[in-house]
Every structure is written in structure tokens, then in C-alpha cells.
Amino acid sequence: MRAMTYRGPYKVRVEDKDLPSIEHPNDAIVRVTMGAICGSDLHLYHGLMPDTRVGHTFGHEFIGVVHEVGGSVRNLQVGDRVMVPFNIFCGSCFYCARGLYSNCHNVNANATAVGAIYGYSHTAGGYDGGQAEYVRVPFADVGPVLIPEWMDDEDAVMLTDALPTGYFGAQLGDIAEGDTVLVFGAGPVGLFAAKSAWLMGAGRVVVVDHLDYRLDKAREFAHAETFNFVEYDDIVVEMKKQTDHLGFDVAIDAVGAEADGNLLMHVTSAKLKMQGGSPVALNWAIDSVRKGATISVMGAYGPLFSAVKFGDAVNKGLTLRMNQCPVKRQWPRLFEHVQSGYLKPSDIITHRIPLEHIAEGYHLFSAKLDGCIKPLILPSAA
Hints:
Number of helices: 11
Order of helices and strands: EEEHEEEEEEHHEHEHEHEHHEHEHEHE
Mean pLDDT: 93
CATH class of the largest domain: Alpha Beta
Distance between the termini: 11 Å
Radius of gyration: 20 Å
Largest sheet: 7 strands, mixed
Strand content: 15-25%
């Protein structure tokens, strides 16, 4: 089969790999019909995630058709059209029993730090991902579900990570009716978080970024107020001014490890790998909220030290909530929102790229060229 493979920082290519096989009776092999590049894939692409090995296939957002099933699989049949959550989970451990599927303890040798994610380095289990023609899906009776007949494929792909993660980010903000909500980052997750904040009763939603085309999308798609931080001497001071100098009720960090806005932080994290991620967006969130506020962290960070202003968070009495999204737990409510028309996930898709051109797709997305917000990947396996 054809599959994207990692060759080192900023180097990916498509090459032939062996077709994945059933390794356990609970496995399924899925023929990928549509995938996507996620903003967190760029952290791998840029060499920020430990133990990303040459030859690894990325991709944790994908849908497809069941090609083969193991002998113990009962809920899926060959030919079923399925959507696969980015989390790999067993469904029965201490964490899964509590709906914390992203923290499953049985799928990753490093599970004390992170669960398992398709195509996200050996730190997250070493499972090959869906930027390929076929992918092995463990615990096939637990993770994947049939795509509803009424749901478009492009909407279904967005429901494997980006939309649930943004929705979960707003959910962790514990938004009360009328709350002011500040979202850092106007990428896909930030856009979905801002849109979801309205569904949870927000009275005002503000999005901060430094790319005008993404801020335009935040106004159009999420109906949010927007601020370009490069236009202000200090974006935190401006955010305080916007709230009568109290600060926002809720802030959502949808940026993570490669935040711009502070050259020293960006260089020591993204370039020199001295930190697990540039904490600029998170520190701005801490400074921009009122005392007693809630901060939700959806941006991806590595396991190393990051210079977070934790003392300020303590002294302001902030609540910080964070996790990888347990995708399947969000699906019932999100299916309702999509079917009723409150959410149209595919509205944020800007590019559709053949798998054979995925190197160009990564460059396009990484360099923020051609107004790229969300690129889909289209394999060609019949």
C-alpha cells in the first residue's frame, strides 16, 4: 500500500509499505477513504515530539471502509463505512470505565504519561496512522462506529478529532450563561471551541491569533470578535481593557507547543527543544482571565519542562483543566448538533490533497500558505 512516512524534521514522503495485518482477534483493517492533517501533526513534522521514528506513518483523523476483521470482532462487518476516534482504547480499564478513553491504561507502554493515539510517535504507542491507504484498528468493537447515513464524509472526518476536541475545550471551560470566553488560536480546534462556546451559553466570545485569514474565518464561522496580537504592544493589556480591567471568565488555549508572540520562548522550545512547548498562549491565558476564572488547555505540549506562570495561576485562584479529548464520549451530543444544523464541521476545510502529494500538503499547512486552515488527505486505494 501507499503511505506517508516520516523521514526526519520537515521531511515526509509517500512510499510503499506492507499492508497492515490482523495482529489480534479484536483488530480490524480499514481502507482509508478520507483523512486529514491536524495541527498537532505539525509538532511531529517539526521534530518536537520525542521518539518520532523514521518510517512512522502519521494521521489520527480518518474515516474508511472495513476491509477485514479479526475473529473476535462482532460489531463491524467487511464493507461497513466507519469513523475512527483518534484515541485507541480498550474500553474496560480503570480509565475507560470512567469515560476517560484518552487515558486508557492498556494500549501504550508509556501509559502513565499518555494514552495511545494513531500515528503520533512511539511516545503515544507507536501505532501507524491513517495517512495511508489502509490502517490497522485495534479494539475494533470499542472505538469505531458506523457513520450515520445522513452524515457527509467530510463532516465525519472532522468528528474524529478537531470538532470533538474544540467542543471538549469549551466543555472544560465550565462556561456559565453569559460568560466572557477568550480563545487563543484560530486554527481548527480554536474555531470549533469558539463556536461551541456559544452552544454552552457564552455571552461574548473573543478569538486571538496573528494570521488575518484565520481571524476572518473566526468571524465568519464562529461569529466571534477577533484581535490580531501583533497589532498591540501587549495583548494581555488589551484583553483586560476589553473586560473593564477584570479579565475574562474563561480562556481556552487552542495553540500549544508552537505558540508565537515571544521570540525567546519560541526559540527555546520550537528550535532548541529546551522546553516541551512554547508557553506563550498559556501564559497569556493566565494573565488575561479574572481571579477565580477557568482555563482550558487543548493545545498539545510535549512531556518536557515548560516555563508556565504557575505562581500567577495559584495566586489568582485559577482552575486549570486539560486532557486529550475522549472523542467517543462527545459523539452523541455532537451528532445531534450536526444533524440539527447547529454545526457544519466541514465548513472549515480549505484544501483537499491527494495522498501522493502529502509532502506539499504538510508544507502548505506548516507555512500557512494559500489561506490553509484544514487540509484533507485523499487516498486512492480502490
